[in-house]
Specification:
220 residues, globular, mainly alpha
């Protein structure tokens, strides 16, 4: 356990210099912009909100909460089983790649630099993130807040580039996203695994369409 403030630990992991490649994924947003589903700041704001409240980010957050609790109890074998469930929830090949590749990269750098231990080297990203946070004694509230904020920030940055939008407009969206996170993370903390699932069908479909997009910048 590193002897400095937990906020510094979270900022370190969420920084783009932490080599997990998060900046290269758009979760289908690139295709959504391509076909004009998302073409304004208002569209982008509600697209990201829906991903948090109704989409796969909601499921990932619930999985993170349970993985954190299991790691605190040293139940690595149960985390491995939970990981199989998490992998089964990915709605497309690209969604699977996005979560698995970030998880594997996070595990590698966290083992090499932080000496963290994981049930295996192929955890989905929210489970890998939860395992590191639990080992560093970071509270579940702070772990969840930082995970949600980091994910939405990465997608907001992608949307600003793709539409494109100005930085001031992007920050206005960020303020709204912070409000959504503040409200939704409390709901997520109360949810059990029976509530895992999503109804973000448009996002799921555009992720599948992105696989065959003719020209693309992002991996998903």
């Amino acid at each position: 356990m590193k002897h400095f403030h937990n906020i510094l630990k979270l900022l370190t992991w969420n920084n783009q210099s932490y080599p997990i490649g998060s900046y290269s994924f758009s979760s289908g947003l690139e295709y959504a912009v391509e076909i004009n589903i998302v073409n304004s700041s208002k569209d982008l704001k509600y697209w990201l909100k829906d991903l948090l409240v109704f989409g796969n980010l909601q499921s990932d957050a619930i999985l993170l909460v349970h993985a954190w609790k299991l790691k605190v109890e040293n139940k690595d074998n149960v985390i491995a089983s939970l990981n199989n469930f998490a992998a089964s929830l990915t709605q497309s090949k690209e969604k699977h790649i996005e979560s698995l590749e970030q998880g594997k990269s996070f595990i590698k750098i966290s083992k090499d630099t932080w000496d963290h231990k994981f049930p295996n080297d192929s955890l989905m990203f929210p489970l890998a993130y939860a395992c590191s946070a639990a080992q560093e004694g970071i509270s579940l509230n702070n772990t969840l807040l930082s995970f949600l904020h980091s994910n939405l920030c990465n997608l907001l940055a992608a949307g600003i580039k793709l539409i494109p939008l100005g930085q001031t407009e992007g920050q206005k969206i960020q303020l709204h996203l912070n409000e959504y996170i503040e409200k939704e993370y409390r709901n997520i903390l109360k949810r059990d695994l029976s509530l895992v699932g999503n109804c973000g069908w448009v996002n799921d479909i555009v992720c599948m369409k992105h696989e065959n997009q003719f020209t693309r910048i992002f991996r998903t």
